[in-house]
Amino acid sequence: MTLQITETAPPRTEKKSRRKAGKTPLREQLIGWLFIGPFGLVFLAFLVAPLVYALYLSLFRKAMIGGTSFVLLENYTKAFTDPSFLDGAWFVIRFSLVLIPVQMLISLAMALILDIVTSRFARFSRLMIFLPYAIPAVIGALMWGFLYSKNFGPLGDVFGLFGATAPDFLSRDLIFYGLLNIVTWQWAGYYMIILYAALQGIDPTLYEAARIDGAGNWQITLRIKIPLITPALLLILVFALIGTLQFFNEPKILRDLAAGAIGPDFTPNMYAYQQAFGLANFNYGSAISFALGAVVFVCVYIFLFATRKRGSFLS
Amino acid sequence: MTVTIDAASRRRRPQRHLPLQILLGFLLVYFLIPFWWVVVNSSKDAAGLFGGGNALWFAEDVDFIGNLQELFTYSGGIYTRWLLNSTLYAVVGGVGATALAVLAGYGFAKYRFAGRRFSFAVLLGAVMVPATALVIPTFIMFSRLGLTNTIWAVILPSLLNPFGVYLMHVYVRDAVPDELLDAARVDGAGELRSFLQVALPMMRPAMVTVLLLSVVATWNNYFLPLAMLSDNDLYPVTVGIGQWQGIASANNSGGTSLWSIIIMGSLVSVIPLIIAFLTLQRHWRGGLAIGSLK
Questions:
Q1: Which CATH number fits domain B37-51+58-293: 1.10.443.10, 1.10.3720.10, 2.40.170.20, 3.30.70.100?
Q2: Mean pLDDT over all residues of chain A?
Q3: Residue A310, pLDDT score
Q4: Cβ–Cβ below 8 Å for B137 and A54
Q5: Alpha carbon of A50: minimum distance to chain B alpha carbons (Å)
């Protein structure tokens, strides 16, 4: 678990774990497959099969009259000209563009602070900041929904002290920020822990060496700490990207509280859910699901490929 | 924030980073305020909730017990049922996913076999497939098989955890030396025995982490059970509370009594995982970094 293995690890270990001749390779291969087997079956049944099935379903259309007919890509052309889908997709993209930098900056800042400050209070804070990760998204959204609410929330009282009207984070204008806050609150602690652990893994003699060379704390942070935790930063960026593009739970829960601000087609996933379970339009729902999955997959893969050299988790 | 770090670190030793500690204090308030709100308001009745009193402080009569009683008796005690369902799904799904990940991660790290590189690339690709994209097609598959609206509809898809396999692979590759396994083999241990008695004990930190991540993911899952289940009695607590919340929001007047149950229900539902995280701290703290250190 040292940091030096970042770049050189895979080729080296591959050679190392090639066992001495003497055992029959076929036997070893078989045992290898036996270990992978159980997971492989689950993988085929609950990942490959649904994906293939979604693709298959998405090529058909079910009509009231005439039954199911093969329409090839018609569902996709429909999706990519459907304002509901496009608006939802545009929303999650905009949301990711704001959310991910904010979330990463906050979690990085917190991790850096907790790396420097070592008091009891700091240790306690670290745990408490992480706590929201253990909260189901549904409950987290609900808690914040209460805090935002005019009926139960403290915002009215707090802003009333200054003679101002409280912002309504459940209104059409501010729901973007309302959701932004919830997701940041929920995940920043988890990302902080990942970054903090990476920072703790840095060899402290590096700092001493830098100090002897005249580097201040600020320089150590920028030139040593942050570059060395780049793999961890990339990892959380990928997590955040995958998570945000499939946004569903929070807007679904806030929908009832934020009357009118969140429609049934607010995010692509909510739209797919509505099409499939609200309108029994499984073919179109599958097409949206598959398109969403494919887009996320391609985006993340391209991103990882582009950043591979800097030690992403694909390397 | 940048200024604070700079200033504090320059006057490092004597001040114990006081500005940073104050900043941490503010962060702490932010991260804890929703919990505080729920704790305070789960003690109130409908009058206390809607009466316009201080939302962040207790009302005149603090009635935790009364609300707890109401929560666990409401609608024939359905909430207990939901808690048990959540526990069942999280434990079976989480333990199953972890067992599969341990086996597969070990297999990928310690054996050469045809198709290994290809399978591993597919596995990494699978980490990037959003889980929710699978829900609708899985639902249709399950409905053909008559599995929807059963516990299996939630448990079986929860067994899939490609990221867990990846974590186990990285950990085993770095933490379990080949020499040790070879030595066990020389001493006459079979493949299974060297896995169970040599490798497995060394994999414990990663195992606890993957277990915790899988249990949390299943306990917190909402989309999958929401899509799969239509029977109230099978709901996990997330879907159940989501449903109550929908009912309470729909009829504003009649729903007032339901709100205090929902708030108490939210509080109770987060306690098990918080306890799990606090007690298992020692184990997961190091483990969470596995994927990012390499």
A1: 1.10.3720.10
A2: 81
A3: 52
A4: yes
A5: 5
Instruction: Give the residue from chain A lying closest to B286, CA to CA.
Output: A197
**DSSP labels, A144-185:** HHHHH-TTT-SHHHHHHHTT-PPP-TTSTTTHHHHHHHHHHH
CA distances from B236 to A117, B87, B88, B222 (A): 40, 8, 9, 8
Q: Is pLDDT of A13 > 50?
A: no
Residue B240 burial (CB < 10 Å; 0-12/13-18/19+)? buried
pLDDT at B253: 52
A179: tokens are 């959701």
Write down the architecture of domain A76-310 according to CATH. Orthogonal Bundle (1.10)
Q: What are the boundaries of each domain within chain A?
A: 76-310
- Of A43-52, A71-80, A176-185, B34-43, the one with minimum mean pLDDT is A71-80
Ordered by start, the domain boundaries in chain B are 37-51+58-293
pLDDT in tens, A212-246: 888 888 888 888 888 888 888 888 888 888 888 88
CB pair distance less than 8 Å for B54 and A6: no
Contact B135 A289 (CB under 8 A): yes
For A30, nearest residue in chain B (alpha carbons): B113
Chain B nearest CA to A156, separation (Å)? 9
- Portion 173-192 of A in contact with B at CB < 8 A: 185, 189-190
Interface-testing mutation among B24, B49, B196, B283, with chain A (most A C-beta atoms within 10 A): B24
Question: What are the structure tokens assigned to B37, written together?
Answer: 């709100």
Reported as a single tens digit per residue, the pLDDT across B83-114 is: 999 999 999 999 999 999 999 999 988 888 88
